[in-house]
């Protein structure tokens, strides 16, 4: 180890990368001079180009004792290096903040989502549960049941799929603790495999994965809401009615998330409890029906579960089991959502693992109990032949009133999933704007001023605005200090998919592209373990956890390649098409102005006391 890294900074000291990032993002820095495209330049990249950590003249050259360096690691000196932890306690700056965005909403010096930490353990739990428990368990568990042939085998698949999804969530929890920044896989891939991999994930997720999956959720929500009021005739109604309801729901959740982070998370919390109450009620009703034999028609309820063995008819076809497992994993998808907002957690190192290890077992147990209740009430053939299991369940037990109530519950569940998806997707778009992957306007907060409500403006606001801010606003920032441009972009893309409404290809695309990036990201955890063994990890999962998840991901991807080779090629072509966009958008950018950064790091005279990071020690 070179002697350069053997000494320590005094208490509260910072390394040169942190100093450069903090100084470049402060509002007081002159940004009038730049020789790069303003929407793309990166403060982290600038810090590497201007402030060489090996330069003995650099006053901040010494490093913290808990920071790991290795001569062979490309994390130390490559362009994708950034501080893994912050000593400010005020939040985390993005990896690369665009010049134009830094003045309005970037970094720690101005308004940023990472600076204003508002999310709690309960908020994180509701985000994951809210998105995982959408419509699948209420509408079409038949994709699992029909492929394996028996109720007992189906329950095994539900448990195995949940555990496998849990291994992915645990792996992401370790990455989120080691790199506590908003953006999820985008940030992890950029650090571990280079900026191009992070850009390709953003390219795919922002344009297809996130808005496409949200569109599916929105249309299912519309279908069930219309079914609740129209009844069985809803199947013959014009699809544009469903799409209209979906667009209204999308607009509503987008507006609510624009108002404040608090409003969006509270809605998630409320709907999460509704979902658990609904699943518990379904379970209790199923048990009661099994014991009493009650049904709404007065006839004897389903007796298949007593007359036939629970494993009778189980298939031995491995491909059928693979399809069932794939469907089960799809039903558990959403376990990575908290990682998109980990930078906004008040205590990410503590809460992120707790969220994962609470949400996943709760969802697994809920799914298994709900399926058992379905088997108690409905014949297996009826379950396998419908995509409205919950509605049929309600009709069987309580008649038309039961089907109405269950249809409303499924619609509300989808609304909650749509809200969770909108909340987390907007953070991905926001980080992409901060990084310069997309125009910097999408990396701004609020109306573009980037400043939350201050004490000087509170007096001038009307009584109504004060009351609304107190009721619905965030504690430190008030109303509309959210990534509004990112929310609008995500809503526009989702609306486009709703209007097109062709989802069969989209599902294949989601499966192939989604699990490809899941695989690469979790593989990156193993790579990071080897390259940075001394990196501080507040949570560290067993090494077998990411290995198991990677093996399962490869299995699912290989199945997709052999069963649907043409659609797989389409996915690959779309991802590869992002490479020239990367070189145009990111690689082609110039270097930010050197003199501006130099002044930001060296000038002490006339600097306010609170800009302590720019002072020489």
From TrEMBL:
Q: Which residues cross the membrane?
A: 121-140, 152-175, 196-220, 240-259, 271-294, 318-335, 355-377, 397-418, 477-500, 506-530, 542-562, 568-586
The family database entries (Gene3D superfamilies) matched by this protein are listed as: Amino acid/polyamine transporter I (1.20.1740.10)
Report the GO terms under cellular component: membrane
The protein's topology relative to the membrane is: Multi-pass membrane protein
- Top-rank lineage group of the source organism: Eukaryota
- Give the span(s) annotated as Disordered: 1-67
Q: One MF term in GO for this entry?
A: L-amino acid transmembrane transporter activity
Q: Which Pfam families match?
A: AA_permease_2
* UniProt-annotated location(s): Membrane
Q: Does the keyword RNA-binding apply?
A: no
Query: What keywords does the record list, in alphabetical order?
Result: Membrane, Transmembrane, Transmembrane helix
Q: What is this protein called?
A: Amino acid permease-domain-containing protein
Species for this entry: Apiosordaria backusii
